[in-house]
Structure formats: C-alpha cells, structure tokens
Design brief:
3 helices, 151 residues, alpha+beta, globular
Length: 151
C-alpha cells in the first residue's frame, strides 16, 4: 500500500501528465477543425477571401509561421505551413505538422519527382512539401472532400 505522501505524488504526477497532453493537443489545429478552433490556434488573420466555389481562404500569422487555410462548411479542408521569412521547414517541423494532421493514422513518404509527398494511412489526406509562390511550403489536404453539400 502506498504511503499518503507516495499517493499524493502519484496524483500530482498524473495531473501533470494530463495537463501536458491537454496543452499539446490544444496548441495545434488540424484538418477538419472548425474556423474557431483554427483561429484560436493560428492567431492573427492577415487576409480572408470568399472564393467562387463557396470556400473561404484565410491567411494567419503566428510566431515564425504563415498558415494558409481553406474552409468548406466551416471545416478546414486544406492547410499550408511555411516560415514567414521564406526559409525551409526543418525535418522536425514537417514531422510535427504531419503528426498534428495524422487523425490517428500514420504518414508514409511517397516521393515523386522533386516534390516530397506523403500519404496518410487511412487514405483520407495527402501532403506535399514543395515551393508555393517561391516559398518552401508543406501543404496538407483532405482527399475526396465534397464541400458543396450541406453538413
């Protein structure tokens, strides 16, 4: 049986671990999240546009990153990640963004040509790391997304 001091340490450790997991999960938005969740995670809106197909694109800036998000029916269906300065993302940053968008699955490299490509194990998303408008960018998008229907 645990001493009362030992039990208290176990409880404190458990609460600390839960707090770390909650903080880790709340800091990253991901595909499928609402515009409110994305805005809370990605910070200041730099630009917002309504597109002819009914989707909305929003550019956010937070810390050293630019986030470009396409929403359909108030859900994120495409996200891009790049450095404000236009420098390459590190392998660690790419892995972190992919992990945030794993949806319980895993990503595998599927490189073709000069672009780095990734496929999610559930087949519902893909990612590429390649220049977009001259800026090295990781793009993560839903596959088979039909944003025209009401949800």
């Amino acid at each position: 049986m645990l001493q009362s001091g030992g039990l208290k340490r176990v409880k404190v450790t458990f609460v600390l671990i839960l707090s770390v997991f909650a903080a880790a999960n709340s800091g990253w938005a991901r595909l499928g999240d609402s515009s409110d969740k994305i805005e809370d995670s990605y910070g200041a809106v730099m630009q917002r546009r309504l597109r002819n197909d009914g989707t909305v694109t929003v550019v956010y800036k937070k810390d050293r990153y630019l986030y470009f998000v396409t929403f359909a029916n108030d859900r994120s269906i495409l996200e891009t990640y790049s450095h404000v300065k236009g420098t390459d993302l590190s392998e660690r940053e790419i892995a972190r963004f992919l992990k945030a968008n794993a949806a319980g699955g895993t990503w595998r490299a599927d490189n073709i040509g000069t672009a780095r490509r990734f496929k999610r194990s559930d087949g519902h998303a893909e990612a590429t790391y390649a220049p977009v408008n001259g800026r090295p960018t990781l793009t993560v998008r839903e596959l088979h997304s039909d944003h025209r229907g009401d949800q």
